[in-house]
Amino acid sequence: MSHGQLHQIVAALYLIVGWWFFAGNCLAAEPAAEYPPGKLGEVVRLGEEIVLRTNEHPLSKPYVGNALRCTSCHLEGGKHPQAGSFLQTAAAYPAWSPREKRVITLEDRVLNCFMRSQNGVRPPNGSQVAVAVTAYITWLSTGAEIQMNAEKPLGPNHVPPIDLAAHQPASSERGEIVYLQRCAECHGEDGGGDDDNPPLWGDRSYNDGAGLSRVEKLAPWLKVAMPLDDATLTEQEAIDVAAFVNSYARPHFNLKEHLPPLEKRGEYNAEK
Asked: Where is the Cytochrome c domain (predicted)?
């Protein structure tokens, strides 16, 4: 066998192994194509319905205090590859949460979101809402390798952060200009939204305990998500729009006001 033939064989092997590795990783990242059979499939479908209609669905509506749905932030029902993606997320839990200063489960993460992003009341552990939504997210994690997160409650497809220090300081003045040009058509000049687009500030939006109430959280999300279906904001524009949006008043978060009665609370031992 000549040196040239050997080189061709080795190159072919690299291609085969590379294709296998690439295909395997792509398959792992793809959401499940079919619902599970039987009752489990029914619960997964229920979870999807709640994610898409959180503020309207009869099971979740009592726990929602604004006009937001889960899919307002977790685009495409959590199937978007970056903007609040649920894909493979269940594989990251249980995870350490610096905010709660405890290890939390996926169910904890879901229920705590009702208190903050949806300015509502935390559903009880083990409730239909809790089981259905976590079942749906777990289904979207089918085939994912378990990699519990010891640093933050984030899945492998979480929103990539933006290095704020590498940009100009956030400017709500510049952000207003971009907002009026790129965002107001859907969300309104007053930020009030409509039936299809969520309100961005005021009593019908997320409270100041939500992650998106901080520029360092909202800006990266805007970068990968907005404008919808045409996410073309620069990092600086996203930072400035985040500063503009969060310059407006929104509900104040007080933990005691967002916890259910003690007999329905289940386990919640965090201090904030």
From this structure: 170-249
For residue 121, is it within any domain? yes
What span, in angstroms and rounded, lies between the C-alpha atoms of 120 and 207? 9
* Predicted pLDDT of residue 265: 74
Per the structure, the count of domains in the chain is: 2
Say if CB 121 and CB 114 are below 8 A apart: yes
Q: Has residue 45 been placed in a domain? A: yes
Question: Per the domain annotation, does 208 fall within a domain?
Answer: yes
Name the one residue in this structure whose structure tokens are 């279906």.
Answer: 229
Two tokens at 191? 């930020």
Rounded to 10°, the helix 235-245/215-225 angle is 120
CATH number at residue 197: 1.10.760.10
Write out pLDDT tens, residues 8-58.
544 444 444 344 333 333 334 456 679 999 999 999 999 999 999 999 999
- CA gap 84, 256 in Å, rounded: 27
Residue (of 104, 228, 239, 91) closest to 161 by Cα position: 239
Angle at 222 between CA 221 and CA 223, to 5 degrees: 90
Residues of the chain scoring pLDDT < 50: 6, 9-29
Per the structure, the complete domain to which residue 218 belongs is given by: 164-245
